Amino acid sequence: MTKNLLTGLLASALLGFGVAAQAQDCPRGVLDDMYCDSNGDMVADTPADPKQWKDPGTLVFTYTPVEDPAVYRDAFADFQNYLAEKTGKKVIYYSVHSNSAQVEAMRSGRLHIAGFSTGPTGYAVNLAGYVPIAVKGTEEAFQGYNLIMLVRADSDIQTMEDVKGKTVAHTAVSSNSGNLAPRALFPLIGLTPDEDYKVVYSGKHDQSVMGVLSGDYDAAPVASDVYDRMVEAGRVKGEDFRTIYTSARFPTSAFGYAHDLHPDLVANIKDAFDSYRFPAEMQETFGGADRFYPITYKEDWQIIRDIAHATGTAYTKNGLQQLAEKEAADAAKQRAEALAQQAQQ
């Protein structure tokens, strides 16, 4: 990717944030000035003026760009058909390649329904009017995941203390398990990122796992569900790795909709999430989850907001711009490394 193209993509991703929004005279908590939160549930209210309600003929849906977007376009194909049936709308999948671009797409009105990964959900709520309503799960509970620290099975690293002085791959700046949680939790056990070990960013959880396997990184904190799916799919072998740390359980990606959709359309979208049951292939893809389990951002994302607060992460325009710049820099670095490897072959 050329420097000019990369700059253009970054500018496009941030276009919706460069225009100052007119502040509304309403309670909003920490939400952007474009939104109101009169009931204190920490997500944007449906606009009071019916003229602002959107009822598009085509609904745009996407899932977090944690891994290969094509995999999840196929995985959600059946649910897209179900959404179309319940809403009476055409539903299309929109592939995104960065968290910041996904947030901007919803803020600008180009994205209507989405699954945001755990960490970036806060940006989507505060800056894009995103209303999370569900997480993959079962009848009993929502599906969660752990932050795990992986090393190679043959590594001399046996404990977290042994990580000191090593090179460790975090995934992306906004990632909960791949960056924010390690920065909040590891110091509690005497291991401070950037001080006790060198942090490099891989871009994605699966790239961190593969980097540990290849020896590019000594260790990597990743989401357990991503790692488990890689093992189940045969992309890596579990016996090639060892886990030296496991955190408490976090919620997985949140699913929800844009706040300004027509209330009748929202009711149909909610009904689709509530009543849909995953087919066997989708259950296999998502670790046994068989439905969307209802959640609220205020209650179920509190631990994630606490981690963000502890690490100084701000779900603001400046915070998202910094995230976008970091994602762009990481993408350019990965592209340069790939070209260098090709040149050596």
Automatic annotation (TrEMBL):
For this protein, the record's InterPro entries field holds: PhnD
Q: Which residues form a coiled coil?
A: none
Identify the Pfam families for this entry: Phosphonate-bd
Keyword Signal in the entry? The reply is: yes
- Looking at the keywords, is Lipid biosynthesis present? no
Q: Kindly indicate where the leader peptide sits in this chain.
A: 1-23
Q: Which domain of life is it from?
A: Bacteria
Q: Which UniProt keywords apply?
A: Signal
| Similarity comment text for this entry | Belongs to the phosphate/phosphite/phosphonate binding protein family.
Q: What is this protein called?
A: Phosphate/phosphite/phosphonate ABC transporter substrate-binding protein
Upper classification of the organism = Bacteria, Pseudomonadati, Pseudomonadota, Gammaproteobacteria, Aeromonadales
